[in-house]
Amino acid sequence: MNATPAGPEQGERAELDELGELARLLPTAPVEQVLPPGRRSHHKDVLMQLIDRDRRDEAEGARPLPMPRRPSRPARSALVAGAVAAALAAGLTVGFGVDRHGADVGARAGAPGTPPAAGRSAVVTLGRMAAVAMDTAVQPVREDQFVYVRSRVAENVGAFGKPVKLGPLHERQVWFSQQQGPVVDVGLIREDGQDWPIEVGVPDGTNPRDSAVPAGVQRPTYAWLASLPTEPGHLLKRLYRETPVEKGEDRDQAVFDRIGDLIREQTMPSATAAAFFKATARIPGVTEVDDVVDAVGRHGIAIAREDVRQGTRNEWIFDARTLDYLGERTVAGRDTERGRAGTVYATTAVLERAVVDRQGLAPGERRRAGRS
Q1: 97 Cβ contact list (under 8 Å, min separation 6)
Q2: Which residues contact 77 (CB under 8 A, 6 or more apart)?
Q3: What are phi and psi of 84, to 5 degrees?
Q4: Among 267, 283, 256, 2, which residue's Cα sits nearest to residue 118?
Q5: Do 163 and 173 meet the contact criterion of CB atoms below 8 Å apart?
Q6: Residue 224: CA atoms inside 13 Å, Cβ hemisphere, count?
């Protein structure tokens, strides 16, 4: 570091250089770019906390970690959520369902598989949702097809550590490959007027086949979802075992959020969907919230869980009469300097879900020149 203090312009340039260096060191278009807005905001906060900690360590004379070799190919800008997810994928802060002593989470007191831990009204509502799911006919999805979801989303665009500022509502479209075998090309996301390939990051000098990811909890497919156990206790134990958990993250919250990701932007067999709802009822801290509004103003009820550490509450929104899934939102669970309790951090409304034969094409849309 220089002996003379940096002026405002130099300080800003240094911060941009640091973030730019981080972006260059990460794989382009990582899989986790498809995170919902609420999760992206959470990951952004985690990333900025790590940067602040590193700055404090450097200011106190701590020896900085050596920087990996910069990739030779140019990397386009990545979403902050993707940046954090890539760091997690590199093994910096990931756990896989065992506590620090190596015990499986299913063996601990109060672990999944025990009697319902959610609030009583939530247990009843989740049971009704499971019954509706079982009565819903679902067409199986082939490996050569894509799951398509169109939604309207808005997320926090406020500065880190500053009051929450909800950005403009905009459309989001995603296409997910259903290939079971390991792949690098996972799908496509269309947002903010751009198409972003969803790809597994491949470090320079690595054979792409060695970085390919098979279907699983972090790259779900219809066939993988169909292979999961439908007994709620067994399903939940598997999710606790396989769901990545960030350093300092509540394990129960991580599993709740992972289930939320799966029911928002995937298609699954009826029995699997029913099992997810029943399994959710066994996660400690799950509650029901009345009269919640999604991103396009539709009212419904919510299955929710508050992340006490982060001070936020994630809510899955359903039509109160039909129990159809409407969307998701993240709100402040308590008053903080960033906003009062109930302040919306991010909101999503799912408008269309379908299975299509070609990536990049919406249902009923014919292939256009220049599109894959």
Answers
A1: 104, 105, 240, 241, 242, 243, 245, 251
A2: 23
A3: -65, -40
A4: 283
A5: no
A6: 19
Please, which residues have CB within 8 angstroms of residue 114's CB and are 6 or more apart in sequence?
282
Q: Is the distance from CB of 133 to CB of 125 less than 8 angstroms?
A: no
pLDDT of 200 strictly over 50: yes
- The single-letter code of the amino acid at 321 is R
**251-83-262-237 Cα dihedral, nearest 10 degrees:** -30
Can you tell me which residue has the tokens 């920087």? 67
Q: Model's pTM, two decimal places?
A: 0.70
Nearest residue to 129 via CA among 327, 321, 313, 348? 321
Non-local (6+) Cβ contacts of 26 within 8 A are 75, 78, 82, 83, 86, 87, 201
Q: Which residue has the tokens 């054979």?
A: 207
Residue ranges of alpha helices (H) inside 268-339 are 270-280
- Cα dihedral 30, 31, 33, 39 in deg (nearest 10): -120
Minimum mean pLDDT range among 62-71, 141-150, 250-259, 335-344: 62-71
With contact defined as beta carbons under 8 Å apart, do 158 and 165 qualify? yes
**CA distances from residue 29 to 187, 193, 249, 340 in whole angstroms, order as listed:** 10, 16, 24, 34
- DSSP SS3 for 146: strand
- Residue positions counted in the chain: 372
Measured between alpha carbons, how far apart are the two ends of the chain, in Å? Answer: 48
H or E element that contains 58: helix 37-59
Q: How far apart are CA 95 and CA 302, in angstroms?
A: 29
**Tens digits of residue pLDDT in 156-177:** 998 888 899 999 999 999 999 9
Task: Quickly list DSSP for 214-226.
Answer: -SBTTB--HHHHH
The per-residue pLDDT for 206 is 74
DSSP 31: G
Question: Distances in Å between the alpha carbon of 214 and those of 36, 142, 183, 341?
Answer: 22, 16, 6, 40
